């Protein structure tokens, strides 16, 4: 079955208009009274602020980072690893997968600080090095993590929305109703897959991808592998024409947030909204420190925010150092917090909204005792099977991933702005095709694993991972991303009352988290199955020997790791995540851990909402930016239309 609903081969001769530089907000700096204040410009806050302004409301969008427009790290899709290492953009969070540090240190990606922003990775740290945990990249920049992420847009499953409707009894969350918000997202978000012709020029790449397709029963005939794979890559995993899409297994293309091979997303939507003259003020280099309340009535009412002006204030930034200049702004209608899964709970707690015991310990006056703030946090697990070939993938010939004049792939990308296929290897994030799998351990009929492949050497996050990922052109990896994970045991707690400190983040992976109903072993077994399937794809590579690809050796997990027990230990030690969410969840009135009602309103106060990755009761879909953007559009509708 083929679905052609957005992909049209070779039709990309559209103009790629360079974005104008974001209008300077400086003229508006004196007028600090707004109708709405939105804190955080990522997937949750950005689209919402645009809609509020487009409806004519005077809106202030506050962003701790700044606009990195025209930074090629952002716009070149193949720089998706490099961009997450850009000090002007990145926020390095260090998290605990396990609170038991001895266990956490089994991960070779475990990080120690040897001097401010200087790290040691792995065992045998120098004496005096301070254990930090596992690097979790975030972005402090206009557009949030959407500005530096891997560009993959996968829409959620109907069950994700129907689940919220059934928990809350609010039928506006039903999947049939949520569909309209995806239409709204597509009004401003361009999405296109990697042009297959870029991939098909590299027969070794074809051979690896065809082998993955073969595992899913749709492998092309070896004698016609190129055209066969090209056809397979027409399959859109987001198809809205396939009524059984959520449960459809197979081999699919990967849709990316780009236009003519250049990342175009939330940052550009914000810019376009400002340029169009809507009453949107963007205040960048501004770190919100707490929410202000009018406590004269029976219910505290949010009235605005306090902040610190200054660039790179937050200590997650490697450029941080200053203290900033205090200021404040008021919102006559509402304050909306969209700082992301870590910063939203931090900001709520700093403002007196959270578990009273934690706030009392830090002498923060309690505005509302909401025990659920910073609990229920969830993520996916990701793990690779990683191999090294004897020779390069030719599709990467000339790619140095460093923006220098000798970066021939960049020259090609820059010289062919209008023809996607001609832009070459830099017009893709490098991850071109995916197995879509319903594991033997899934709880519903929905698929619950993506196993995507690409010529990359990536084994998770640690300082320096981005350079290592592209250091040679010989590696291939199959990455398993486990969806509908069952662990709900993550927490975000204050390290101190200093708003520029990062919070303490515990994920409590696998058996140290949710175990009821064998939750941890079901997730782990699904991932072991995926490692098996990745290896099965690698075995089938020899069936396509006619394509001429050379041999490889497995580096991770490595051939010594074979039994389910050993594969399971490998996964427990080394898995990582990048879809942190659910840390200020929507819930029903009588749920003591519900932070929000079904209209995003923070319980126990007026005029305050949360709109970002934090709001979900359960982690949605397979990738998270699409559901967050849909939530952002829904929130705008709820706020504007009641
Ligand atoms: C390396 C990486 C790759 C990823 N790849 C993908 C992918 O391919 N597909 C996908 O679907 N998802 C991906 N994700 C996840 C996705 O990008 C994020 O989950 C999503 O952007 C989160 O949206 P958000 O609005 O909740 O928060 P964010 O996008 O993080 O936005 C929050 C914003 O708030 C700002 N902020 C925070 N606190 C304050 C404060 N106190 N004052 C002022 N501003 C503040 C931050 O600077 C930030 O800009 C990836 C994530 C990472 C880290
Ligand atoms: C891109 O990021 C790298 C770090 O990965 C950095 O060294 C470089 O300066 C950045 N490029 C630009 C244009 O800012
Ligand atoms: C917010 O911070 C200011 C000082 O920066 C403090 O005076 C105020 O009490 C705080 N408000 C709340 C609600 O925590
Ligand atoms: C993984 O493969 C091995 C060897 O074929 C098999 O014994 C095992 O049951 C598989 N594990 C899972 C979880 O599918």
TrEMBL record:
Stretch forming the signal peptide: 1-23
Cofactors required: FAD
Keyword set includes Flavoprotein: yes
Gene Ontology MF term list: flavin adenine dinucleotide binding; oxidoreductase activity, acting on CH-OH group of donors
Pfam families: GMC_oxred_C, GMC_oxred_N
Domain of life: Eukaryota
Residues reported to bind FAD: 288
Keywords of this entry: FAD, Flavoprotein, Signal
InterPro entries according to UniProt: FAD/NAD-bd_sf, GMC_OxRdtase, GMC_OxRdtase_N, GMC_OxRtase_C
Domain Glucose-methanol-choline oxidoreductase N-terminal: 340-354
Annotated family: Belongs to the GMC oxidoreductase family.
Protein name: GMC oxidoreductase
Lineage: Eukaryota, Fungi, Dikarya, Ascomycota, Pezizomycotina
